[in-house]
């Protein structure tokens, strides 16, 4: 008979066993690798002290790991990118505690993918039901599973969770030979805008270099982290991730990172960092920063250089991260995302379910409207929306 276990550290689970489950999932990403989650823990980035108390859940039978997921008891809603601040406020206005809540997600990482890792549908269903039980046992107000795949959503719906719709902006390959070919498919005004922005960056004397894997040295990571801190400083906040986290990435997952460095007169002025899934030919925009302001540099570093690199290296997908209608003008098209939610309080659950139904209908219409304004020429826009 299967048994359930709760773990206060990813280290309690064998990396090989975890990663085997991930590799067999419908939509694996590098961010769900054991090494990534362990680095978040060991670097102090996602631990109880920062409001992320690990409560990883696993299902076992005869010594075999059947299913597992990264779960956290949260004391806030920062670093999630699926916003429930209004729900928390409503709880507090009625004298109820919204925190702790039980969250299944990759901390600080709004990348869609498999969350409930399992050997089969039965094990996934058991894991989903166990999450509901864990939420009750820990007296959490609610359960939230963010950016899960379709199998996750189905198992959670059967366990009584409600779906929440969202949207991100992704680029998918259309057989372009190079970046110029990609630009040629865009509507004239969009193409000219991009060319103008890139020209202004070049006229400012900026050149880019790209480095992956073992080509990145400590000095590269140090400058990246300086820029990463600067971005948060400009938004009057503190970085979620420590320098030690990125040191662990350089050591444990070097082949999953791509760094674009912008130089002017030989001096570094800005960086953008992408995560890579070489096996599935996917790239993920993650972080950016600059030590001085140069007009249009952000767009070039975060969109045009990555897109050109993806096309040149045969990558099939580039995910631009959370939110951002402005990404459409750069050729990234709206892509639906989903999360799953369960609230313990019956009255609030009814209210939230009603809200999610109305929000989902509005989101569907919003995505249709976005597709009607695709940046591509007529034929290519129809292909991108299909």
From TrEMBL:
Pfam families: FemAB_like (PF04339)
Domain of life: Bacteria
InterPro entries per UniProt: Acyl_CoA_acyltransferase (IPR016181), FemAB-like (IPR007434)
Name of the protein described by the UniProt record: N-acyltransferase
């Amino acid at each position: 008979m299967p048994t359930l276990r709760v773990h206060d550290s990813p280290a309690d689970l064998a990396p090989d066993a975890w990663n085997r489950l991930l590799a067999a999932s419908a939509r694996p990403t590098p961010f769900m690798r054991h090494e990534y989650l362990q680095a978040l823990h060991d670097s102090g980035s996602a631990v109880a002290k920062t409001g992320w108390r690990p409560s990883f859940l696993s299902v076992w039978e005869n010594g075999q790991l059947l299913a597992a997921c990264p779960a956290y008891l949260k004391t806030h809603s920062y670093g999630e990118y699926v916003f429930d601040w209004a729900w928390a406020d409503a709880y507090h206005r009625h004298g109820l505690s919204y925190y702790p809540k039980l969250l299944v997600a990759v901390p600080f990482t709004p990348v869609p993918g498999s969350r409930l890792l399992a050997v089969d549908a039965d094990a996934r269903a058991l894991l989903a039901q166990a999450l509901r039980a864990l939420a009750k046992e820990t007296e959490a107000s609610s359960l939230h599973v963010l950016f899960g795949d379709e199998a996750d959503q189905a198992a959670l719906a059967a366990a009584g969770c409600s779906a929440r719709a969202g949207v991100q902006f992704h680029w998918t390959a259309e057989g372009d030979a190079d970046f110029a070919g990609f630009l040629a498919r865009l509507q004239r005004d969009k193409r000219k805008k991009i060319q103008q922005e890139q020209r202004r960056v070049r006229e400012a004397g900026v050149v880019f270099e790209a480095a992956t894997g073992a080509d990145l040295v400590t000095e590269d990571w140090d400058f990246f982290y300086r820029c990463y801190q600067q971005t948060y400083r400009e938004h009057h906040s503190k970085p979620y991730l420590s320098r030690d986290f990125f040191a662990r990435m350089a050591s444990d997952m070097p082949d999953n990172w791509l760094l674009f460095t912008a130089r002017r007169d030989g001096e570094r002025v800005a960086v953008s960092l992408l995560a890579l899934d070489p096996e599935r030919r996917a790239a993920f925009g993650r972080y950016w920063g600059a030590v001085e302001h140069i007009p249009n540099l952000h767009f070039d570093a975060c969109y045009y250089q990555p897109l050109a690199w993806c096309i040149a290296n045969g990558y099939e997908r580039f995910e631009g991260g959370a939110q951002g209608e402005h990404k459409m003008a750069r050729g990234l098209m709206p892509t639906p995302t989903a999360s799953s939610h369960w609230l313990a309080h019956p009255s609030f659950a009814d209210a939230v379910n009603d809200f999610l139904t109305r929000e989902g209908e509005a989101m569907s219409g919003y995505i249709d409207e976005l597709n009607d304004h695709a940046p591509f020429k007529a034929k290519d826009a129809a292909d991108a929306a299909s």
